[in-house]
Design a protein that fits this description.
About 75% of the residues lie in helices and about 0% in strands. The longest helix is centred in the N-terminal third of the chain and has 23 residues. It starts with 6 loop residues before the first helix and ends with a helix. It is an all-alpha fold.
Length: about 190
């Protein structure tokens, strides 16, 4: 008779943990290893589908993989889009207070040209975790895509208080100023 304490269950749990650790390592190594990270996170989830960190990380990997594919001809992995959204929704169901997942899901919906839900997710994420670095990195990207550079600069200003030497944040501020300059030139032409 199978019980949760049986040897096969323990071995399965250890294998899931091993795949999870391996996947996190690949994720930290960078973009070159995202596909390997995805495979290992999926193996970890096969052993324990309710493992919240692996569910979140799989969604993050899928999100990053999709954004790496810039050329429409290379978007043959059409399932990758819906797979990323599905995985992030699962992660949000497992942890309804995970602001990072909310922001990534909002950006994903925004890239799919969906309205309404992304804005709600961003507001919820800012309400739940206004000072979390990952949230502060992704929220300005959302506002910039919505052509709301002032809101983006406001969030980036708060983020700079926490990490004044962050090159990523300074780069994001530069992108906002570039967008404002482009808009200013367009207004002059009209």
């Amino acid at each position: 008779m199978w019980t949760p304490t049986s040897a096969s269950w323990k071995r399965s749990a250890r294998e899931s943990q091993g795949h999870g650790k391996k996947a996190w390592t690949f994720l930290r190594f960078g973009a070159k290893y995202y596909k390997r990270a995805k495979v290992n996170f999926q193996k970890a989830l096969e052993g324990d589908p309710e493992m919240c960190p692996s569910t979140l990380a799989t969604g993050v990997v899928l999100y990053r993989l999709e954004h790496m594919v810039q050329d429409d001809r290379l978007r043959s992995e059409e399932s990758l889009r819906s797979e990323a959204i599905t995985q992030m929704r699962k992660a949000l169901l497992l942890d309804t207070a995970d602001a990072e997942v909310m922001v990534l899901l909002a950006l994903k919906h925004q890239s799919e040209k969906q309205r309404g839900e992304p804005c709600k997710l961003i507001k919820d994420a800012l309400r739940l975790s206004p000072d979390v670095p990952q949230v502060m990195h992704y929220v300005p990207k959302y506002f910039r895509a919505e052509r709301s550079t002032n809101a983006s600069l406001e969030v980036l200003g708060k983020a700079l208080e926490q990490a004044p030497n962050s090159s990523f944040l300074h780069h994001q501020i530069g992108l906002c100023h570039k967008q404002q300059l482009i808009e200013m030139f367009k207004e002059e032409r009209e």
